[in-house]
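Input/output pair, single chain:
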Amino acid sequence: MQRRAFLLGATAAAAIAGGAGYLRARIVETPAQVRYPGMQAGHALRDGAALPEPTDARACGVAILGSGVAGLSCAWKLAREGHADFVVVAGPEYAGNAAGGAQDGLDYPTGAHYLPLPSRESTHVREMLADFGLIERDAGGDTPYYDETALVHSPQERLLRDGRWEDSLLPMQGLPEADLAQHRRFLAQVQALHTRRGNDGRKVFAIPLTLSSRDPAWTALDGITFRQWLEREGYTSPALRWYLDYCCRDDYGADTGAVSAWAGLHYFAARDGHAANAAEGAVLTWPGGLSTLVARMRAAISARLGHERWLLPGTAARIRETPAGPRIACVTDDGGAYALQARRAVCAMPLFVAQRLLPDIRAYGYDPAVHASPRAAWMVSNFVMDGYPLEAPGEPLSWDNVVYQGQGLGYVVSTHQLLRVARSPRSVFTAYHALSRLEPADARRWLSQASPEALRDEAAVDLIAAYGEEFWRRARRLDITVRGHAMATPHCGSLSNAGLAALRDVDGQILFAHADLSGYSVFEEAAWWGVTAAARVLGARPEVA
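Output:
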């Protein structure tokens, strides 16, 4: 993968929020890296690069192509049910959007960093968590008991607004009573939607998405944007509108003006997991983010198979259906190649990649020119810190820290979960950016062409707003992960996308398993399509709407 080294803080300055001027960045001699996982392999597929001749061929029952959450969930389910004749081709980045990294003995996420408590409908996630020991009892009940070390510790979140920290991401202090009334009305409205059911008896909003109601009175919300719905419902409070934009950017990579009203409400109304030993709104997280959960999944697979030969290096580059089953050409990082002859193949990669591997994905009912979802561009930036920047008196550092009207999505603290009497001597602050202020193609172009200094300044903008020059006194190293096609965004029409529906129903030599089938990217959806593909391999008929 392409890498660029640069000196953290080696030139110029970052702007303080509010335009208070520029800070002279502290020079740090340790070089940092910018990584573009999957870009080189993806561009080679896009450009039709010639493939080397395979030097080896291997037969297998099932070839799972991709080692993200969907691919590993498929492998986990097969292994759990006693089906051992499968392999997983890792792809250009093991774990995909759930990947992580490490520096100086500190783990950190380079993708997603938490998992909400799974709802009753997310039985597949509960089964996983129980298998991994993360649910300790009552996995099928209303309030399972979770591993205490995985539940996010207090204080969980805070918001920097008007120079002061507040303990809720939705502003509730110093606002006009009319605005506060709107905030309370919105919260009550989405709370009521948690239990609302459509005319088909299903919950209106459920995770996985495919279990949601198909009542036309509710699916009609897929035809307007969330912003249009807010205007229709009389939600005009600037603070509320900022908060809802933030939430949509955080989960979908786009704001309320791009996301459908159905998806916007789904964000708030579908998640209703509870725990016997945690407060409302708790999540599961680890210093390495979801990479720790993926590691548990991998360990469970290997333990059942008794080896790790199921995980193959390389990236699938071509798929051809034959009378004997799919034949897959794979390339390795060192320029080599091998072939897999499988009876079935699971395309567990983003659909914009899958369309390059298959001779014609339109044969499965999906036309990329018509059915492809927009894809949001992201940066995940990890600052290795010596100690911690100075906080204002009486302001405790939280796990999740957000800047009101900030350019980024705030930052999480990797060492927050470590159970220690005193703070650790070193930490990692992970800053998230969804570049939703640009059109997706423009964001990808900027990310590929921006100088290292520009990427660094983008990465640090919320941290500089919070700490000023004090932040640079503590930062020692920076690892930026650029994800130009990070996630699908649920624009209007996503729920009724006929191409996605067609791929969800495919059940032949080729199967599809990726969060893209849901039109947006979260762990629960990716895992659902992975276990659904496994169920089809095993001859079961999972519920798919």
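Confidence is low (pLDDT under 50) at residues 1-31. DSSP finds 16 helices and 24 strands in the chain.
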